[in-house]
Amino acid sequence: MDVLAQEQLRLDAGVVDYVLLAIYFAFVLGIGFLARRSVSTSLDFFLSGRSLPAWVTGLAFIAANLGAIEIIGMSANGAEYGMPTMHYFWIGAVPAMLFLGVVMMPFYYGSKVRSVPEFMLRRFGKPAHLVNGISFALAQVLIAGVNLYLLGSIVNVLLGWELWLSVLVAALIVLSYITLGGLSAAIYNEVLQFFVIVAALLPLTLVGLHEVGGISGLVDRVSASPGGAEQLSAWPGTELTGFTNNILSVVGIVFGLGFVLSFGYWTTNFVEVQRAMASKSMSAAQRTPIIGAFPKLLIPFIVIIPGMIAAVVVQDLAVFKQTGEGAVDYNDALLLLMRDLLPNGILGVALAGLLASFMAGMAANLSSFNTVFTYDIWQSYVVKDRPDDYYLKMGRWVTVGATFGAVGTAFIAAGYENLMDYLQQLFSFFNAPLFATFILGMFWKRMTPTAGWVGLVLGTVSAVAVFALAETGVLNLPGQGASFVGAGVAFVVDIVVSVVVSFATRPKPVTELTGLVYSLTPKASRTASTTGEDAGWYRKPGLLAGIALLITILLNIIFG
Fold this sequence. Notes:
By secondary structure, the chain is mainly α. It is built from 24 helices and no strands. The chain has helices at about 5-10, 15-35, 40-45, 55-65, 70-80, 85-90, 95-110, 115-125, 125-160, 165-210, 215-225, 240, 245-270, 270-275, 280-300, 300-315, 315-325, 335-340, 345-380, 390-415, 420-445, 450-470, 480-505, 540-560. Helix 9 (about 125-160) packs parallel to helix 22 and helix 16 packs across helix 17. The longest helix has about 50 residues, at about 165-210. The model is unreliable at about 1-5 (pLDDT under 50).
């Protein structure tokens, strides 16, 4: 970030703002120290001893995703594309979250696996397990780097420190409480961070709407800005996808984002699934992503709308949108709006909210990375059959190593004008082919162990190939079209290769697939208890999911 950009983004924080930030950090570190007292085994450290209630894991589930990428990336998309960005929530998140809760959590929780790669081990064997473990670990270090870069950028803007120093300080803060309290520290901090984030973004949205003259004023000003009135309706979203044809754009959003990228992320990404696995019962595990779906439906209004407001209120950003030139870009939308509209005191809350979002995202990456690396790579292939205490200590050291890895990858993220482009590209590489392998293996008992890892590898290679063709100009895929197409290609290639290889190789015996394949798992094993703490209509996963789906459909109709 150059000197001019630093000066334009410098926030005029006062004593009150710094006091509020200090109080917030005291709470964060205090939760880490308190959580450490409940950690005595590796299961406590990595999965909170499977003891947490659904409302805690549900809020942590959504807060883990409400990281720097979500807040800054989605506000950047709001500034650049407008309402079509809503698709990342209403098409690209909620349906898959509901599917995870209703259909897939019974398999994850019921099988008592400690991670998603461990489920791959039981279904497909060691090669698929190792491929998934390594690819997941790599993805988490890269994504943690994005969160860390943005966290360091805020410290850089606030205090004027060099970016490298800001990144290191930010990394040490997150590292401290994850190393102390493991997943419990991460989850309870994520619950705190959820409320802090809402307390930060809601006032910013309301002040911003007042500044533009309410909703009608925003409509008028966005209509007159570059991109015009198309930014005010979610469909067909041609600027977002990069397709000029409306039908192709809708297909790209529904299949590329809504099916492949979304289901690939929410149903197989251990960062999210880990929160549900920490629940105290099958019913609580199923309700975790469903509870998270309700705030997920509303978050766009306090993330995307401020981005749209910034694009028409902040002069620096308006010039950038008009000309493509200037010392700021779309990633700065939220910071610029905070700089121009928030008074001292409220600015401190807003800064705490931004820092909370970045820390929640990075902590989620680290807590899932240390579990997968320790259990699925180190214990499985490097150092086997040691006492549990050894793996508990190893998990803490792995967290330290991952943090320094994220420091390195933070500077890769610095090269992207819109970080959501970078993030969606990573998802097309790692999540899309994994979802294809999962969904086929879960519903087709004939799929073989060899098909599990071959399909996964070739699916990933095909997504990387699409990215390379787009980068070199062979394929004209502007916006996030390359990630949508890459995800679709990866999914199709993985499915086709897996089917062909399955017919050429030997499947596992049917007796080894109980609890791993839908048709071979008794209904009783896939059904949550409705007695005791899980009794009551408001605790029925299917009913809650139906209500959330109905609201999703209504929102798409209203804002379509």
